[in-house]
Amino acid sequence: MNDTVKHLVLLVNNKPAEQREITAHAAKAGWQVIYADDSESAITALGTQRGMRLDAIIVDQHVVGDTVCELIAQLKSRRTALPILMLAQSTSPLLAVEAMRAGATDYIIKPVAPDRLITALDATVTRADTVDELQPLTEKIAAPLEFDAIIGSSPPFRAALAIAAKSARSQVPILIEGESGTGKEMIARAVHAASPRAKTPLRIVNCTGYMDIQLASQIFGHEQAAFAGAFEQHTGLIQRADGGTLLIDEIDQMSLETQARLIEFIRTKEIQPLGAKHGFQADIRILASSNRPLPMLVESGEFREDLFFALSVVHLEIPALHARQGDIPALVRHFLARIAEQPGMRSLGITDDAIQLLCAYDWPGNVRQLQNTLFRAAIFCDGDALTIQEFPQLSNMLGEVDANRNVSQEGIGVALYSEDGNLRPLEEIEADVIRLAIGHYSGRMTEVARRLGIGRSTLYRKLSDLGIDNAA
Asked: What's the DSSP call for residue 112?
């Protein structure tokens, strides 16, 4: 916990247990919480001496029910620049959209995950440096479960998908590395959907936000009284995923002690819950993802070498979005189509200069940040198409984008020459052209064949001859 309080937040909530829980989570990031039990108290609090020092407000939907958006609008009208977060039991995208339009900065689903709350709070005081994220909203947009439907034509990205698609049919562990927001979980879900275990459970655990004992309990389970606070028996994710797949997200955050438990399970296929005197067999496939390169952590002693080798039978590296900027126009149009399907949203186009602006940004939050940014822009757009005006933060950061810059095609192409200056073999160039076409037309093989001017059967023969999977 921080020694000094950095920021002050008003929590509109009338449940003491929830107040204590949120206060404890917020305190870890240096936030002090003050309380208001109802709408009237919340509005009054804005005019107090402490209220004038507020950095953010958290409004619990439970307190005001159906009028929560009205309260948010009232608070926003009195303190225009003050960020407002809404806590909601409902996962309804329509409610989230209404809250955002009323003035909410972010939307958090209960029960509140500690890391999610801290991220949302911290984002309120770093808004000058970041583009707003709407994680709960954009999570409602279904990710493609088929490799052919995943958007992206850059050779490194398609090569990673090709390996993932081929490996999906086996039972081996897969390690997926890449920056946060590059689509590691989406690829893991596609692997599960394409595997022989597709009809069995896929369980996911994120290693961030848990104390070590809590993470071990989540994965392996525990017996009653196994540790302080273990008031009842808990079934771990390995047991619940028996016969299926377990995705361990951000495994680079796992402690060495829990890593030791995991490698023991991988070796023996036997799980032993915390506090148990006996173990039992479990049959699962393990997928793991990491935001940081695990070989680097192995060298520094932060990650077990034997676990790294056990998990990386297949090792995928997903490129950051700035490394495949030519995919941005296709991603933008794909996300806008998916956003239009959400309750309360509508179909929108996007102007060329807005596309150019989006392509000019480096996207440190990768594909997830792009999707979040488009969702926010779509919520507040009054016209029929997104323009530069819908992205004021990007405009301020990047300035004027050259209108003559043809960014829609930037980064898309096939290299004709190798690094030594010689022409590449025709077979390699042809394979890259086919990969590009598959990505550009989102895996619609009939359209790919038509655009390449060949028959569908010829296309599949070339895929086989060149060793290209449909996902390649």
From this structure: P
- Structural domains for the chain: 7-130 (3.40.50.2300), 155-317 (3.40.50.300), 321-409 (1.10.8.60)
Cα dihedral sign, 249-315-311-283: positive
Phi-psi category of residue 353: left, alpha or beta, with phi > 0 → left and psi -120 to 50 → alpha: alpha
| H-type alpha helices, 84-183 | 93-102, 114-124, 135-138, 155-168
- Tell me: the pLDDT tens digits for 309-331? 999 999 999 999 999 988 999 89
**How far from 191 is each of 12, 173, 198, CA to CA, in Å?**
42, 11, 9
Sign of the Cα pseudo-torsion (413, 415, 416, 421, in order):
positive
95: closest CA among 107, 85, 105?
107
3-state SS, residue 71: helix
The end-to-end CA distance of the chain, in Å, is 47
Rounded-to-integer distance, Cα 232 and Cα 225, Å: 7
Rounded Cα–Cα distance for residues 315 and 400 (Å) = 40
Distance CA 226, CA 215 (A): 14
Tens digit of pLDDT for each residue in 225-269?
888 878 888 899 999 999 999 999 999 999 999 999 999 999 999
| 250 and 303 Cβ atoms separated by less than 8 Å | no
Planar angle of CA 99, 105, 111, nearest 5 degrees: 75
Give the pLDDT score at 281: 94
Query: Cβ atoms within 10 A of the Cβ of 437, count?
Result: 19
Annotate 35-60 with DSSP letters as a single string.
EESSHHHHHHHTTSTTGGG-SEEEEE
Please count the other Cβ atoms lying within 10 Å of the Cβ belonging to residue 267. 10
Amino acid at 259: Q
Share of the chain above pLDDT 90, in %: 40
